[in-house]
Write a structure and sequence with these properties.
Elements (H helix, E strand, L loop, with lengths): L2 E5 L4 H12 L4 H14 L19 E8 L5 E8 L4 H8 L7 E3 H10 L10 H13 L14 E6 L5 E7 L20 E4 L3 E7 L1 H4 L4 H10 L4 H19 L6 E7 L4 E5 L5 E6 L5 E8 L2 E6 L2 H12 L5
Parallel strand pairs: 3-4
Antiparallel strand pairs: 1-5, 1-11, 2-3, 2-6, 5-6, 7-8, 8-9, 9-10, 11-12, 12-13
Keywords: Hydrolase
InterPro entries: Ntn_hydrolases_N (IPR029055), Peptidase_T2 (IPR000246)
Organism: Pseudocitrobacter corydidari
Length: 317
C-alpha cells in the first residue's frame, strides 16, 4: 500500500511526481520533501517559498518542517530568509539529534554552512502584491492580514513508513519574527508510521490552540477513521474557540492512516486538497461543509481552468 495527500491544489504537480515515485517503491521521507520543494519553486504560489508574500516590512520569512513517522525525528525552520527550499533545510535538520529546530539568522547561517543555496526569495510579483496591500490597508489604517495557505504533504510508502512535510511564507503582512503552526510539531504536522499522519493549514494562532495535527493522529490511534478524526477535531476546535475566544479563524486539515485511508476537514467553503493512493487515482478535491461535516467533490475542468487563470492574473496597480 502507498499513498500521498496534500493541502491545496497548488500541490498537484509535486504530488503527481511523488505519487509516481511512491508507486515505484521510493521512500516516503524523500517523496514528501520533493513534492513540497516543487511547490516552493513555483513563483505563482504566493503563500509558499519563492514568490511567497512578505512581512509588513517587505521581507520574505519562510517556515518549513519535516517529520519521520518511523523514528519520530523531525526538523523545522522558522523566519528563514533568502534560502532556497526551506523544506530541504528542515529535512536535513531532521537528521540532527539536537538543534533540530532553528529560527531566523541561526537557521540561515546553518543552512549556508551545509551548502544550501543563497537565493533572493522576494519576487517582483510578490512585491507588487505587497505594494497593493499597503495601499489598500496600511495607508488607510486597516488590518493587512490575509493569505495563509500552507502546503502540507503526507506520504505512505510500500515499506509501511510514513512522513510529512510543510512549507509556508506565513501570514501575509505578518510582523517580523511571527511564527505560525506550520513548523510547530503537533500543531502544523504530526506523523507516526504505526498510526498515521496529519497536517494543517489556516490561521496558525488558532490551529496551535488545539494542537490539531497531533489530536487527529491520537484519535486515529484510538480507532477513529481518518475522516471522522479530522471532522471531529476541526468542529470541536472551532466550537471551543468560539465559546472561549469569541472567534475562530480558518481551520483546514488533511490526514492519512497507516492503511492509506484518508480524510479532510475544514471550517471554510473554499478548501481544496490533492490525493493519490493505491486505490484512489490522483484527484483534486474541493470541499463543502454540511452540518459540521466535510463533503468532498472532485473538481471539474472549469474549476481547474479558473484556478490557473486566477493565480496567473496580472496584479492591478
Amino acid at each position: 500500500m502507498w499513498g500521498i495527500i496534500a493541502t491545496w491544489r497548488m500541490a498537484l504537480e509535486g504530488v503527481t511526481q511523488s505519487a509516481d515515485a511512491l508507486m515505484q517503491g521510493h521512500r516516503a521521507g524523500d517523496a514528501v520533501v520533493d513534492a513540497v520543494a516543487a511547490v516552493e519553486d513555483f513563483p505563482f504560489y504566493k503563500s509558499v517559498g519563492y514568490g511567497g508574500l512578505p512581512t509588513e516590512n517587505g521581507e520574505v520569512e519562510l517556515d518549513a518542517a519535516w517529520m519521520d513517522g518511523d523514528t519520530l525525528a523531525f526538523g523545522a525552520v522558522a523566519n528563514l530568509v533568502d534560502i532556497a527550499n526551506p523544506v530541504r533545510v528542515a529535512h536535513a535538520l531532521g537528521r540532527q539529534r539536537y538543534n533540530c529546530v532553528l529560527v531566523g539568522q541561526g537557521a540561515r547561517e546553518w543552512a549556508l554552512s551545509q551548502g544550501f543555496a543563497d537565493k533572493k526569495m522576494l519576487t517582483e510579483r510578490a512585491l507588487q502584491h505587497y505594494r497593493k496591500r499597503c495601499r489598500e490597508t496600511l495607508d488607510k489604517g486597516l488590518s493587512p492580514y490575509d493569505g495563509h495557505d500552507t502546503v502540507g504533504i503526507i506520504g505512505l510508502d510500500k515499506q509501511g513508513s510514513m512522513s510529512v512535510a510543510t512549507s509556508t511564507s506565513g501570514l501575509f503582512m505578518k510582523k517580523r519574527g511571527r511564527v505560525g503552526d506550520s513548523p510547530v510539531i503537533g500543531s502544523g504536522f504530526y506523523c507516526d508510521s504505526e498510526v498515521g499522519a496529519a497536517t494543517a493549514t489556516g490561521v496558525g494562532e488558532d490551529l496551535m490552540k488545539g494542537c490539531a495535527s497531533y489530536e487527529i493522529v491520537r484519535r486515529m490511534a484510538q480507532g477513529m477513521a481518518p475522516q471522522q478524526a479530522a471532522d471531529s477535531v476541526v468542529q470541536e476546535l472551532e466550537d471551543k474557540l468560539m465559546s472561549r475566544f469569541g472567534r475562530a479563524g480558518d481551520l483546514s486539515v488533511v490526514c492519512m492512516n497507516a492503511r492509506g485511508e484518508f480524510g479532510a476537514a475544514t471550517n471554510i467553503q473554499s478548501f481544496s486538497f490533492v490525493v493519490a493512493t493505491e486505490n484512489q487515482p490522483l484527484t483534486v478535491f474541493r470541499t463543502e461543509r454540511v452540518q459540521g461535516k466535510t463533503v468532498c467533490y472532485p473538481v471539474d475542468d472549469a474549476w481547474m481552468q479558473a484556478y490557473a487563470a486566477r493565480i496567473r492574473a496580472p496584479i492591478e496597480e
